[in-house]
Specification:
Pathway: Cofactor biosynthesis; riboflavin biosynthesis; 5-amino-6-(D-ribitylamino)uracil from GTP: step 3/4; Cofactor biosynthesis; riboflavin biosynthesis; 5-amino-6-(D-ribitylamino)uracil from GTP: step 2/4. Pfam families: dCMP_cyt_deam_1 (PF00383), RibD_C (PF01872). This protein is elongated. It contains 11 helices and 16 strands. A 9-stranded mixed β-sheet has the order 11-10-9-8-12-6-13-16-15, sandwiched between helices. It is an alpha/beta fold and about 350 residues long. Helix 3 runs parallel beside helix 4.
Length: about 350
């Protein structure tokens, strides 16, 4: 019975760590969104989560939040991911834990980062810390799925998103657009606001050429508070006009094209030459990995989304079905995956899928 209670207590504090870590979604990347709790005599005396990129890690913030530092010598530190052991933009968290003489450390899961990979745990144990690893490991893996996908699969965590009508269309026929060039909204304003929140949570956003030509999107965060994602645009034959919003230089933008043209590049616009005749999805994933992009949300169009679906190179799909009927138009992508949830947003339906066609986190 005592062991059972002990296990439940460690899980309780690790769940609190996960909840804290979610506060860093959209700001910590490419660092992981780690949560940390410090407990003394079954009372939380300190909490923290990863600061925006370049700032202190969760362990540092948690330790700094403790008012009576003398209690640290009798405390237990809980953290969702192995404390770092290397110098990056900040000093190693493992060193600070040792310096503060915290005797017990409970870790959700080992860090796969090549510069950590068990070295933080080793350093703590060598200093005499009692280290427990693997508490709520599955939940911690789910929480850190972007970071883990990046380091284990060498690509960004990929989210597909689109809106479709009741009869399965993403856009109306071309002549209908010509007669009425204003946007044909499939979803309501609450769903559209949610999409802007999602943009603020991911490192990058991708669209195809047709989406830019037809919609001239900004791909920025406007209906939510947060940073703009890095824009990734496919433009095989250089068809996108220079006065398009995605070419305005206001946000870091990668143009994937088959035609080399140095004139496209400026301070915030970068050119990536790829072979559109080969596995395009894989090439994009590899290039974005090289640029340190840990997560990517793909918002269209249909052909671009289907390219990633056919390559089985996606992790989540978020599909809105609006209360609209087009009758004809651009068909929505065809996808199969594990259904993980359905939510109503007024008269819209949001369906969530996970890719179950490969080994997943």
């Amino acid at each position: 019975m005592a062991y059972f209670c002990c296990v439940k207590i460690t899980e309780k504090y690790m769940r609190r760590c996960i909840a804290l870590g979610k506060n860093a979604l959209g700001t910590a990347a490419p660092n992981p969104m780690v949560g940390c709790v410090i407990v003394h005599n079954d009372r939380i005396i300190g909490e923290g989560f990863t600061s925006p990129y370049g700032g202190p890690h969760s362990e540092v913030n948690a330790i700094q939040s403790v008012s009576n530092k003398a209690l640290l010598k009798e405390a237990t530190l809980y953290v969702t991911l192995e404390p770092c052991s290397h110098y990056g933009k900040t000093p190693p968290c493992a060193d600070l834990i040792i310096e503060q003489q915290i005797p017990k450390v409970v870790i959700g899961l080992k860090d796969p980062h090549i510069k950590v990979a068990g070295e933080g745990i080793k350093k703590l144990k060598n200093a005499g810390c009692q280290v427990t690893v693997g508490v709520l490991e599955d939940e911690c893996r789910e929480h850190h799925r972007r970071f883990l996908t990046f380091h284990e699969k060498k690509r960004p965590y990929i989210i597909l998103k689109w809106a479709q009508t009741q009869d399965g269309f993403m856009a109306p026929l071309e002549d209908r657009r010509t007669k009425n060039p204003s946007p044909f909204w499939i979803t309501n304003e609450h769903s559209r606001q949610l999409v802007h929140r999602w943009r603020s949570e991911e490192m990058a956003i991708l669209v195809g050429t047709k989406t830019v030509l037809e919609d001239n999107p900004k791909l920025t965060v406007r209906d939510w508070e947060g940073k703009n994602p890095i824009r990734v645009v496919l433009d095989r034959e250089r068809r996108i006009p220079g006065d398009s919003h995605v070419m305005d230089g206001s946000t870091k933008t990668f143009i994937f094209t088959a035609l080399e043209d140095a004139s496209l590049a400026n301070g915030e616009t970068f050119i990536e030459i790829v072979d559109f005749g080969k596995n395009l999805a894989q090439q994009i994933g590899e290039r974005l990995y090289q640029h340190g992009i840990t997560s990517l949300i793909i918002e269209g169009g249909g052909r671009t989304l289907q390219t990633f679906i056919d390559a089985k190179l996606w992790d989540e799909a978020r599909i809105f079905t609006g209360n609209t009927i087009f009758g004809q138009g651009t068909k929505a992508p065809t996808i199969a995956g594990k259904h993980v949830g359905t939510t109503k947003i007024l008269d819209d339906t949001l369906t969530l899928l996970r890719n179950d066609q490969e080994h997943h986190l």
